[in-house]
Amino acid sequence: MAERTQKQKPAPTRTDEVVTDGAPVSPQGEKLKAELDDLLDEIDEVLETNAEDFVKSYVQKGGE
Amino acid sequence: MAIAKVCGIETEYGIVVRGAESNPVAASSVLINAYVSGVIRKVGWDFEDEQPANDARGFSYETAFAPEIETQLVNAVLTNGARYYVDHAHPEISTPECVDALEIVRWDRAAEEIVRVSMDRARHLLNDGSEIVTYKNNSDGKGNSYGCHENYLMDRATPFGRIVAQITPHFVTRQVFCGAGKVGCEFPKTSNSSVPYQISQRADFFEEEVGLETTLKRPIVNTRDEPHCDPQKYRRLHVIVGDANMAEMSTYLKVGTTSIVLAMIEDDAVGADLALANPVNAIRQISHDPSLTRTVALRDGRRMTALEIQWALLERAQKYERSHGLVPVGEAVGADVLAKWETVLAGLESDRASVSHWVDWVAKQRLVDGFAERHDVQPGDARLKALDLQYHDLRADKGLAKRMNLATLVDDDDVRSAMTEPPTTTRAYFRGRCLQKWPNDIVAANWDSLVFDIGRDPLRRVPMMEPLRGTAEHVGQLIDECETASELLTRLGS
User: Interface pTM (ipTM) of the complex?
Assistant: First the structure.
């Protein structure tokens, strides 16, 4: 259960600092990376074969 | 005083036809007709329209748009209380009225499944090798946008000026956990290379702080005043600023947190100090900064990040739960939303990957970055934009979101039943049950009425001006007991 009292938040770095998605170090991170690798392995079967044509032809009328 | 946050989502889907020439209005009509022709005798929104159940002859893009209904676009009401119709060249589904964010997730997922079934049936009925493909997103990458709108019931007594002032900071910053992500940028004079990826699909399209428009000069707070219920007591806040979400948790938090903040506004528990100096600039600046470190200016001169503004809102919401409770948003669901709101903010702040199964833009970014790294693809490559679009592809075998192991809140059985069953908790129940039981006696349905034709003049309109009347508790037994619509009307005293 998440703590509900006034939280001590780490002061975030501001504006100019770019946060990079570093290599996973935790077991959870390893698992996530493996999951992504699996998906990228199979993704070629599923992806649109001609990305340029697909992207170019995806045009919608403006809606609300 | 805060009132029940009855809510609903209406989603305009992107639509593409492969293997045939068609325009999106005709294609949308074909898609919807494919669904309703197989499901129920179609009950029109404003007009009666016969659809032979099994006649697939002449089922084509041309005849779906027959001259005699050329000014009346397809418009159906479903037995789960939802509305399925063509709007501005998109198929659109409005969920039935729900009482809380969890019900919203269930009926929004059901809407996706309805669209999936529609695509399958259309392909089968057209039988010409063509395929209609739909996308649950908000942007075509070429400057055109279409919406996913939320609707919230509010007390008419709450001054609209207070709503505008105090909901705007949340509308501008909540994208950090409910943005759907976008490869590239459509804001004039901003190149794809300076913004290769952004948090929100919609942020580039907002030009005003408040206003009536929905298709151009879009405002962060929309002033449409069409309550579809008792206008003396209620307001329906029509929200156009959000992205359509594939991740259930994103939808849940989007609607759950907004319901809580609106209840707080009704009880004047938000305060005015989070007002932004320039909300229109801020919504874009925040979207263009996936690092979540950019600050935006407040009216009082302070600068805060989107996360800091969200933390401030969460802390007030936690205080509000202690002082007022969360009955208007569902006590248990409200408490759960608060807990998950805290978890998602903490995750976004210090361990981005930990929320990649909750937050669409984070999941999509991992997909795009992972692909780019593996195949050594540069920003601006069409394959990255293709990934973005295909994330939202609603086809079961092609859609990428469904392969991302996103967290689910509703199981498949509950989603399936929600395609045909209405919520038990709102007037959608009365609408849905009557449509199930007496479809041949109902000539028209609206949000706030049903019109019956029981074979003798005049037509009988049953008003439904109270969103929380007509629930299972109120009318379930009555509907069960009545054999005919005529009997129902007699017992309702109409």
Answer: 0.88
